[in-house]
Specification:
The chain has one domain: Orthogonal Bundle (Multidrug-efflux Transporter Regulator, Chain: A, Domain 2), CATH 1.10.1660. Strands 1-2 form a two-stranded antiparallel sheet. It is mainly α. The radius of gyration is 15 Å and the shape is globular.
Length: 89
């Protein structure tokens, strides 16, 4: 599978980069795009690679913040870290 062209790489974010900005796993981002929870990507190239701009990230953050998952992350940001520490013991 071909990678993004240089012009696409610097103008837009890829799926992994956008997912990292949102604080979610790339698979979760793909699933939410498929389920139309998030808006469609800003740009899809001829190889069907998805790209996102900063405006898209702001919209997705807003959707995420208003979701149940966003409420958990905001109300208890250390929850995931504490859970991982408990499983190590």
């Amino acid at each position: 599978m071909p990678g993004p062209r240089i012009s696409e790489r610097y103008k837009y974010l890829t799926v992994p980069q956008a997912a990292k900005r949102l604080g979610i796993h790339p698979a979760k981002l793909r699933r939410r795009l498929k389920d139309a929870i998030f808006p469609p990507p800003t740009y899809v190239n001829e190889h069907h690679l998805k790209f996102f701009d900063e405006d898209w990230v702001r919209k997705a953050r807003s959707i995420l913040a208003n979701s149940f998952e966003g409420e958990i992350a905001v109300s208890n940001p250390g929850q995931r870290k504490m859970t991982n520490e408990k499983t190590k013991q």
